Amino acid sequence: MRIDILTVVPELLTSPLNESILHRAQEKGLVQIVVHNLHDYAHDRRKTTDDYPFGGEAGMVLKCEPVFELIEKLQSERHYDEIIYTSPDGVRYDQHEANRLSTLDNIIILCGHYKGIDHRIREHLVTREISIGDYVLTGGELAACIIADSVVRIIPGAIGDEASALTDSFQDNLLAPPVYTRPAEFRGWRVPDVLLSGNFAQIARWQEEQSYQRTRQLRPDLLNEE
Ligand code: ADE
Fold it and tell me: 190: domain range?
């Protein structure tokens, strides 16, 4: 899979995309993540990527020219399955969407920008608008990191323990069960006996019950019981 991320602040993406699981997934060749600086596609002396909005509102708007030039260059090199724009107006991001994106070959993520982007980019280039939640960030870079992180970690082979991505919270609309590690007793608080029993059928049953209980208690909306 290849993920191209387009931004005016590439520095914001450097560390989240180049550590830990995302770093290893790239090293293993499971994914190629390419960050593009939109300023490189602005051709005036000051490398301007934004301009004042028509109509006189406050804030700056990302211009068409650098975005069209870069995306059309990328599209001349390969087919893109989705051109995503990160915006609070978009469809709410969830695990189903992460799963779907992880099956695609090539995606572009265009990071949103302060006041917005010229609407012609949304009309004529973008194929999907994604919001990571009902709140407003200063830009779309953190949202792009969240999308890339959640997509890459479920690519087969990205996580050491293949099974663990499938037992994540949300993978079956349930929250994950509690987990414990050594010591079996800490400050008098014991790990549930069943986990020390070695009886894997019983452990699996306990984990399933815990998942349901926690989901009912914390996120009943996931069970449609609200
Ligand atoms: N840009 C600003 N706020 C955002 C949000 N909630 N989701 C995605 N992109 C954004």
Answer: 168-220
CA distance 46 to 48: 5
Q: Whose CA is nearest to atom 4 of ligand 1?
A: 88
Q: How far is C-alpha 186 from the geometric centre of its chain's CA atoms?
A: 36
Residue 65 and residue 84: Cα distance in Å, rounded? 18
pLDDT, tens digit, for every residue of 156-195? Answer: 999 976 667 767 778 788 999 999 999 999 999 999 999 9
Minimum mean pLDDT range among 50-64, 138-152, 154-168: 154-168
Q: How far apart are CA 178 and CA 207, in angstroms?
A: 8
Is there a single domain that holds both residue 140 and residue 186?
no
Q: Is residue 109 exposed (0-12), middle (13-18) or buried (19+ Cβ within 10 Å)?
A: buried
Does 133 carry a binding-site annotation? yes
Q: Bridge-partner residues for 5, per DSSP? A: 35, 109
Same-domain status, 148 and 172: no
Does 134 carry a binding-site annotation?
Answer: yes
